[in-house]
Amino acid sequence: MGSEGAQEGAGNAFVRFGLSGVVFTIIGPSLFWLAYPLGPFVAVAVAELLVHMIRFATFRSLVFPARKGYRVSLLRYVVSALPASLAGVLTVALFQGRLDRTTLTLIVALIAVVFGFLWSRYVYCKPVGKRKLNHLL
Fold it and tell me: Which of 28, 38, 66, 70 could in theory staple to 42 by disulfide, Cβ–Cβ 3.0 to 4.6 A?
């Protein structure tokens, strides 16, 4: 029974993770598009900062709550989110002025989703030794 409960909890966490991914994949590009008149770099900064502040709080309280035994730290979150954010900034740097606002928004969103998925898959599939894990906590 303990094993079934753990599997059910992990399944629920996966569903919550997937739903939050869908929600933040919509919110992030929407904020970028809305803030774009302030300039593309300001828009990406506003979107990234707001989305990640809200997403971190959501991860801690709803997706992977401590009351269910998860340990979401700011360091772990930054390690998982920073590369995708940097990919978004790099994309804006490469394509600003060459693409219209909507096309740039869609490309930034697509790159963030693909890069974020691949990086997260890499980060979360790598085994972490106890010594290394204790150092990160």
Answer: 38
